[in-house]
Write a structure and sequence with these properties.
The chain is an alpha/beta fold. Helix content is 32%, strand content 16%. It has a single domain, classed as 3-Layer(aba) Sandwich (Aminopeptidase).
């Protein structure tokens, strides 16, 4: 797979954003700093921003052409209530909070896509960049929908992704329907 040169060129700055988010994890519906960082980056890249859906959710809007077609790209942004024991420089600075599920990476990947789409609007339609709060059992998606996500931003499909450390580097898996969609606890 050929990696786009524009994505490679921004890799270091996007990695810095991920590390910043990792160092400052926020739990369900507390993602105020993360939402502010996301909104600032999108604004910096000329992407209109809508805030407040689902309490701390952020939606960026990238238009290319005049087509009424639209899709959503979604990333979750909350952390988990657990202690981080890593010792690297960007380890959590907040006791009892950690990005253990990779949502810092999900936000970074969607920001990389946002920056690329903002620079290369050679598509016909609209891409809504959906940064969802409270994915880890908090009902953030439901809150965004209840706050009018699809009425305000009508789209034909929404695509989400999740890192999967067990996958070989350079590969991806695609499956219709839900995958890994539970934060249930066993006792």
């Amino acid at each position: 797979m050929q990696i786009l040169d524009s994505i490679v060129a921004q890799a270091a700055s996007i990695a810095a954003v991920r590390r910043d988010i990792h160092a400052h994890p926020e739990l369900c519906f507390e993602e105020l700093r993360t939402a502010e960082l996301i909104a600032a980056k999108l604004t910096e890249w000329g992407i209109p921003v809508h805030r407040g859906l689902g309490k701390t959710g952020v939606v960026g809007i990238v238009k290319g052409g005049d087509s009424p077609r639209a899709i959503g790209l979604r990333a979750d942004m909350d952390a988990l209530p657990m202690q981080e024991f890593n010792t690297f420089a960007h380890a959590s600075r907040h006791p009892g909070k950690m990005h253990a599920c990779g949502h810092d990476g999900h936000v970074a990947m969607l920001l990389a896509a946002a920056q690329h789409l903002a620079r290369h609007r050679d598509f016909d339609g609209t891409v809504y960049l959906i940064f969802q709060p409270a994915e880890e059992g908090g009902g953030g998606a439901r809150e965004m929908v209840n706050d009018g996500l699809f009425e305000q931003f009508p789209m034909q499909a929404v695509f989400g992704m999740h890192n999967w450390p067990g996958m070989p580097v350079g590969t991806m898996a695609v499956s219709p329907g839900p995958v890994m969609a539970s934060t249930s606890e066993f006792k």
